[in-house]
Design goal:
Layout lengths: L14 H6 L13 H5 L1 E5 L15 H9 L6 E3 H19 L3 H28 L21 H9 L4 H9 L1 H11 L5 H27 L30 E3 L2 E3 L7 H4 L16 H17 L16 H26 L6 H21 L1 H9 L9 E2 L5 E9 L2 H13 L3 H12 L21 E3 L14 E3 L1 H5 L18 E4 L10 E4 L4 H16 L3 E2 L24 E2 L2 E2 L8 E5 L15 H16 L12 E3 L8 H13 L3 E7 L2 E10 L3 E2 L15 H29 L5 E3 L5 H4 L4
Antiparallel strand pairs: 1-2, 1-19, 3-4, 5-18, 6-15, 6-17, 7-8, 9-10, 11-14, 12-13, 14-16, 16-17
Helix pairs in contact: 4-5, 5-12, 5-21, 6-8, 8-12, 9-11, 9-12, 12-21, 13-14, 15-16, 18-19
Length: 740
């Protein structure tokens, strides 16, 4: 579960962004005027019905007083419904076959529910007391002249003037939502997170637009075939924000960069990183385009100062919406924190045992159900019981035949009726397969599109490397801000030569990948696995008589065949090479613990997959391909080799050919029949990557979601009625009529 009172990057309605980013690519909703968007589609006020509940009956007047201050909106404007459709609802119509009528009614119900929960959250915080039993928040200055909501709204306006004062006065809901969210400023970091996330979203929208202006002359540049990157590359953690910095008497915040201030020699905002090639002119073009889209959608008021974002009504509407959503999240988190006692060691142990018992019964009755379950394994979806031995997971590096080799083999296959001859021919082709580092597209002379960086000496795998270029610097070196890459070691540099673009000239990276045979690739692989894991390697196997890892099989000697009627039927002879990283015991309970040798070896092999493999289906999987000990859908050579390797245990790797080329298969995990994790262990909860750590987090997250859904359902059932909610269908009938 996320930390208490964290504000996640879920965004609010993304009002202007939804209407200006063009995400849906549709323009069938014609907005004639601000007046049309300002119409009220529904009104929500739960204050009158609070008297029905003993816990809230004393807060009827308080909530109504907040509403009267303008601190809580009761009206839902048509603008919100249209925005919600553009960001969410359009998908229901286009992808799921919903009618416009059903979609808009559903979205309006969601907006009503959100308004109900917001108003109830205000009551919740008005009820809240400190350790001494004193109320923390209040509404009227008459009750608390210094710390009330009314006083806070006035305090927020103090020292403001001109347009900023005018807009704050017109939008008291911004100050009121900030008051309740931060608990009168006691938790101001929550507001700063919301502000950062909103400004970051707008900057991202402007960045996307600005790139078209910056790269207009070079937008057709080619950096080779696009290469899959690991999940979470350049992804900020959902709870991250750039905190304000106090510089003397001035507080600097992360702001939206419009280019206008830079033109006036005021520089770029604190914390914002300009796009490479950005100029005040290109940024202003992007900003002007953004403003133009707002205007086209009726979100610009006549007296808005569009040259200053904070002097536009849109800015305050967007901020109020996000603060409202943040208050709902905070309310939900605080409710969950109050009930976390239910998630005790005893509860989690009992839940685990119940799950295991249910799975045992299901999987012993139907092994295919187990296979289906492990295909959807994740850090929130656990398989706690295995019916039989020797299920497992493998990674696969495919070094493919070239197009010419594929043509030659297909021609030979078409005219051959003798497997002995055909596979001898394939063995010859296999010996000429060339592997090379495929990460060339991760280099880009445009910094904002570039994943490569020069690493300092000692921060990467040497072994005679021609380059010191690694990838994904933010993820690997700044985990305060960016997500870590899952099972990705990150110290294998580009295997080839790199000449960086000359800073004084326009140009591209000059890249040349080193060419590897299968044997030189295996040497490279074993060196990196040893380097990363710190474990030794044993080269052996049933068909390896001299212990060098190479099997005496048809690949090494095509005369070695075991066939009947010229049909090849001994797949052990398809294995070319095998070995094992001695990573000790790799168990499910500790699999993702980054301190273990097993994790490090798997992370290193996974990185090599991203570098060399053309089998993209195995990239960004949870643990690799799930392999059954029974008949599978894999090609027979791969099936036999993978099943054999799994029987040898985690850390085993094996090389075999198929009609696709060379497969280098690495066993990440093997199942033994019985209890997979050995139960829930409270002592492991604090250890990152352990099963008990992930299980506790997943159960808390599930509990949180269930609790939040149940609470919202309770509130909706109680307050979504004719007393508290009125819907004005006439104002959005034109949207319902889109079905006609």
């Amino acid at each position: 579960m996320s930390k208490k009172n964290s504000i996640k990057k879920v965004g609010a309605l993304l009002l202007g962004l939804a209407l200006t980013a063009g995400a849906t690519g549709c323009d069938f909703i014609k907005t004639d005027s601000m007046k049309d968007l300002a119409q009220t589609v529904a009104t929500v006020n739960i204050s009158a019905q609070l008297s029905d509940d003993d816990d809230t009956k004393d807060f009827v007047d308080d909530l109504q007083a907040v509403i009267n201050l303008g601190g809580v909106e009761t009206d839902i404007p048509k603008r919100d419904l249209v925005s919600y459709f553009m960001s969410v609802g359009y998908t229901y119509v286009q992808s799921y076959g919903y009618t416009y009528t059903d979609t808009f009614n559903m979205l309006l119900d969601m907006l009503v529910s959100r308004k109900i929960v917001t108003q109830y959250a205000v009551v919740y915080y008005l009820q809240k007391k400190d350790d001494q039993g004193q109320k923390i928040l209040s509404v009227s200055k008459a009750d608390d002249a210094e710390n009330s909501c009314e006083a806070y709204i006035e305090k927020e306006k103090a020292g403001k003037s001109g347009k900023e004062l005018e807009l704050l006065s017109a939008h008291p809901e911004v100050s009121a939502m900030k008051y309740f969210l931060t608990e009168n400023g006691a938790k101001n970091d929550l507001f700063e997170k919301v502000l950062y996330q909103m400004n970051s979203s707008i900057n991202s929208t402007l960045d996307t637009a600005e790139k078209n202006f910056i790269f207009e002359a070079t937008k057709d540049h080619d950096h080779g075939e696009v290469r899959t990157t690991p999940t979470n590359v350049n992804t900020e953690k959902e709870d991250f924000y750039i905190a304000p910095k106090v510089n003397g008497t001035e507080t600097m915040r992360y702001e939206v960069y419009t280019g206008l201030a830079a033109k006036e020699n005021q520089g770029v905002p604190y914390g914002y990183e300009m796009l490479e090639g950005s100029t005040p002119t290109t940024r202003m073009k992007a900003y002007n385009s953004f403003i133009g889209n707002l205007d086209e959608n009726g979100l610009i008021k006549k007296d808005d100062n569009t040259s200053v974002l904070k002097e536009m009504d849109y800015y305050y509407v967007e901020l109020a919406s996000r603060l409202e959503q943040a208050l709902i999240e905070k309310y939900t988190d605080d409710l969950i924190a109050e009930g976390e006692g239910e998630l005790s060691k005893e509860y989690l142990s009992k839940r685990y045992n119940e799950t295991k018992a249910a799975q045992q019964q299901a999987y012993e009755a139907d092994a295919s159900a187990f296979e289906t379950a492990i295909d959807s394994l994740s850090d929130t979806n656990f398989v706690t019981y295995c019916p039989v031995d020797n299920y497992g997971f493998v990674y696969n590096i495919l070094l493919p035949f070239s197009e010419e080799q594929n043509r030659l083999y297909a021609a030979e296959q078409a005219r051959s009726t003798d497997d002995t001859h055909l596979y001898a021919y394939r063995a010859q082709l296999l010996s000429n397969i060339q592997a090379k580092d495929l990460r060339t597209s991760w280099f880009n002379e445009h910094e904002d599109e570039n994943y490569a960086f020069e690493a300092e000496s000692g921060a990467y795998y040497l072994n005679g490397k021609n380059s010191n270029y690694l990838f994904f610097e933010d993820n690997l070196t700044n985990n305060e801000r960016y997500e870590e890459l899952n099972v990705y070691y990150g110290q294998y540099p580009f295997n080839g030569t790199v000449t960086a673009p000359d800073a004084s000239k326009s140009g591209k990276y000059e890249l040349k990948s080193n060419v590897l045979t299968i044997d030189s690739f295996l040497t490279e692989m074993e060196g990196y696995l040893t380097y990363a894991s710190g474990a030794t390697i044993t080269k052996n196997g049933v068909g390896d008589t001299d212990g060098d890892g190479v099997w005496e099989s048809y690949v090494t000697d095509p005369s070695k065949y075991d066939y009947t009627d010229k049909k090849f039927n001994d797949y052990s002879q398809f294995i070319y090479y095998s070995g094992k990283v001695n990573v000790d015991s790799v168990n499910a309970a500790n699999y993702f613990n980054p301190t273990t040798n097993g994790y490090k070896a798997a992370a290193a092999f996974n990185e090599l997959m991203f570098a060399y493999s053309t089998d993209t289906g195995c990239l960004n999987t949870y643990m690799g391909y799930a392999v059954s000990p029974f008949t599978t859908s894999f090609v027979p050579e791969f099936e036999y080799a993978a099943q054999w390797a799994i029987a040898q245990g985690a850390g085993t790797y094996v090389v075999c050919p198929s009609t696709y080329g060379w497969h280098i298969i690495y066993v990440t995990y093997t199942y033994k029949a019985g209890d997979v994790y050995g139960g829930y262990n409270e002592n492991d909860v604090a250890i990152e990557g352990t099963f008990s750590n992930m299980y506790a987090e997943a159960m808390k997250e599930q509990y949180s979601a269930d609790y939040a859904n149940n609470e919202q359902t309770r509130l909706i059932l109680k307050y979504d009625n004719g007393t508290c909610v009125s819907r004005n269908q006439k104002t959005y009938q034109d949207l319902l009529d889109l079905d006609k």
